[in-house]
Amino acid sequence: MKSTCLPTSLLLLVLEMSCVSPLESHKPNFVLIMVDDMGIGDLGCYGNKTLRTPNIDQLAQEGVKLTHHIAAANLCTPSRAAFLTGRYPIRSGLAGLHRAGVFIFNAASGGLPSQEMTFAKIAKQQGYETALIGKWHLGLNCDRTDDHCHHPSVHGFDYFFGIPLTNLRECQPGHGAAIDFFRYLPYKTLAIVLVTAAVLHYCSILTIPRWLIWTLLSLSLVVVGLLGGFMMIVPYMNCVLMRERKVVEQPFASENLTQTMTKEAVDFIESNSEKPFLLFFSFIQVHTAMFASAAFKGTSRHGIYGDAVHEVDWSVGQMVNALERLKLRENTLVYFTSDQGAHLEETQHGSNGIYKAGKATNWEGGIRVPGILSWPGKIPGGAQIDEPTSNMDLFPTVVHLSGASVPEDREIDGHDLMDLLQRRVERSNHEFLFHYCNAYLNAVRWHPRDSSSVWKAFYFTQNFYPENGTTCVHTQVCFCTPDFVTYHNPPLLFDLSKDPSETTPLTPDAEPAFGSVVSAMAEAVERHQRSVKPVESQFSIGNMIWKPWLQPCCSTIGQLCQC
Known about the structure:
This protein is α/β, with parallel strands linked by helices. Helix content is 31%, strand content 15%. A hairpin with a 2-residue loop joins strand 13 and strand 14 (440-446).
């Protein structure tokens, strides 16, 4: 009996291993790549003839290129929240009624709520190793500097190496200020008041005590000094590099950061080659302040912006090469996109192709982004899909492929892409897409089931001055608040299938279907708004302001938040 027991035990062990191992090995890996502020017209595969992007173009050649791929928001923070959760950002409170539409301080208490379900959190539950390398921009702390209530680790990422905020101008010397309080001081009003008071005093109409004059001047100097001092320390507050939950560089040096991040990504892939993994590589480029490492400076005809695009392409190639070297390529879905269109006011070189305007607007140039999915053997190569899709679609796609089910306890706005990518269906599941400008419903897109048209209606548009060399009245970002927009009743209507550049609004006289189209969109808006449940705004003033007790800091003796 002893002689037969051992072989039988070994046989049972082998059978058990044969049942488990193939199941694990056949779970696909995910490498999800998002560039910051890259325009759809920056890539060769989308028509650019003056920038070299061979690695990204190769991904498109080997997979599917989406030409009607839409970011769920026109600014970084809400767009990334929608990407991770598959939900319009207003559902998670990442949409506000004030001017600011992104987090501008590390020491703010707002962020992606912990009860939100990300694809990383679900993949981790399915046995995946998960990592975020690069930009987060979805909050950090709530009540203490070490509670990390919004940290990537709370949202399913086992490993984090990157920046918790974004790459502000202040993070590179000589690039100016993104947080410039002096811009909002009412200089004209103050000057008029002071001159009027001086004239009245000189004419003996109004007597102003000398002590009051000196008091006002002193207060003005104190306010200017405090604002100036605050702006000087912004790089130490906001330009922070973290590994896991520890600050490792403050302020960070950006020049070689993409090189370092790329090495981190390749190391993660190598370390987890024997198990299923999900890597979200979130580029810091090509957001301002612009930078590129020495190897790429001067390699393009578009200045530092083009150099940064070249470096992004190199980094993508390094990750794909690692997958091929480790024989993981055929078991890995690679996705490439941007969080919104190029920021034309800032970069001066980014291209949104034929599409109007750019980042911070819901014109097509602000939200139509690259969408490339490559998975050899699973997704046909060299295909182009012109159907409307969204970056929210990655959530249900990743969830289903990981072996899980999409949560049923909340509204999910994305749709699984696999049937469309594998050509089992010809039509997108998105009949309507809703475009928010902060918390304001700005526009709606309709692709009728029985039509090739894609209608888009604007209920308001941001005040727009392209003849001045900028899209909006501000040099950095367009605002959505009522004092900076123009309302339209009836709405501005475009048929994007005929006018993708949104050059000529349709009129009731010129378009017989105008009334029925606008009416159908209004009904869809009403249904959608009924599905939006009230939640705490993460962009309230209380959640957005700088709170010293939440400031991440790696202070050493004799130094203030510097390492």
